[in-house]
Amino acid sequence: PYINVHIDTEIKDNYFTVKAVGYKFSINIDNIEEVQLMDKLPKDSFTRTNGGATEEYNIGNYKGNTYGKCMLFIYKGNAPYILIQTDTQAMFFNAKDSSMTKQWYEQLCE
Fold it and tell me: How far apart are CA 94 and CA 63, in angstroms?
């Protein structure tokens, strides 16, 4: 399932959803505490608890020393990255195309 991974995003009915290869993160936009656009992923030791990792992707549930329980939907080496922080967890994601990542960030900040 980790061949030709595509990360899908959607904003609909005030919910923001990211999904890929059976993993899904969905949140009411009003419950987002923080959104950041990052040039690189934080220097945290992310340990995969459930998901998949290849040379190109990190998808699924992870635990970070700093961020705790989090989800990653990232194409490795394709900065920038977006951090969404909620009261219970963090989620990092991006697109293969940096301009698309920036568009997603702008939509989330509206």
Answer: 18
**Distance separating alpha carbons of residues 9 and 110, to the nearest angstrom:** 16
Name the helix (H) or strand (E) containing 78: none
Beta bridge partners of 47: 63
3-state class (DSSP) for residue 46 = coil
CA–CA gap between residue 44 and residue 38 (Å, rounded): 14
**pTM for this prediction:** 0.91
Per-residue pLDDT of the chain (110 residues; tens, 9 = 90+): 556 788 999 999 999 999 998 899 999 999 999 999 999 999 888 999 999 888 889 999 999 999 999 999 999 999 999 999 999 899 999 999 999 999 999 999 88
d(CA 57, CA 99): 18
Q: Rounded to 5 degrees, what are φ and ψ at 99?
A: -65, -35
